[in-house]
Prior knowledge:
Blueprint: E1 8-16, H1 22-31, E2 44-53, E3 58-67, H2 74-78, E4 86-92, H3 96-112, E5 118-124, H4 132-135, H5 147-157, E6 160-163, H6 172-188, E7 200-202
Parallel strand pairs: 1-3, 1-4, 4-5, 5-6
Antiparallel strand pairs: 1-7, 2-3
The structure holds guanosine-5'-triphosphate (GTP) and magnesium ion (MG).
GO molecular function: GTP binding; GTPase activity
Organism: Trametes cubensis
Keywords: GTP-binding, Lipoprotein, Nucleotide-binding
Amino acid sequence: MAGVQWHYVLKFIITGDAAVGKSSLLVRLTDQRFLANPDPTLGVEFGSKLITIPEENKIVKLQCWDTAGTESFRSITRSYYRGAAGCLLVYDVTNRQSFLNARSWLADVREHADPHLTCILVGNKIDLCSDESSSAAAGKRKREVSTEEAELWAQEEGLLFVEASAKSGENVEAAFERATRNILDKVHRGVFDDERSPGVKLSKPSGNGIALDESQPRSGCCS
Ligand SMILES: Nc1nc2c(ncn2[C@@H]2O[C@H](COP(=O)(O)OP(=O)(O)OP(=O)(O)O)[C@@H](O)[C@H]2O)c(=O)[nH]1
Ligand SMILES: [Mg+2]
């Protein structure tokens, strides 16, 4: 893959209630770090990351729009859903209301994003309930959403599902990778394509400034 910057660019959105850890998941993905006191997102934030899908020998650039969970920004953030190929629908496993509210975030996504979008339900903050017996003593919150309940709802809605922690990093990259594999599978089956799907772009042999494999012929107006 020498010389190739990316084979696909995919647009992702990250949505869910305020304070469930959306920005923290994105910072973990892009910078491999955890901010204990991040600022709430005012509108949208952006992050991008190259990931490799080894079995396909492909480099994928994820362009991620991290949206505010605060209700007052909802009409602004909805406008960023358009054309997204992937969505991380995030709730906090220690906050049941954030799981219940995921239904209305999903309804919004389905109304405004590509109908073929791949959505992965992410139960964040599992570090807080890694050891339930000592969590009360340590002043930690207890789990309020079981893995089984969330998994069942995800199945009913046709969502992928994973539990993760932006704090420890557990399953964060894996969540994006699972969604990416699912999107690439849709690309191979023709569900998404470069022409019709604004959130999916394939590298082209010329004209867009992308460095290509040395073995590919180069084109140019003056050669
Ligand atoms: N223990 C723990 N805390 C987390 C985790 N992820 C985020 N937090 C904390 O949860 C709080 C909210 O995190 P944010 O990433 O700002 O949440 P958000 O979903 O982006 O919130 P908005 O931008 O307001 O919608 C912060 O105090 C984070 O440090 C996690 O995996 N574990
Ligand atoms: Mg945020």
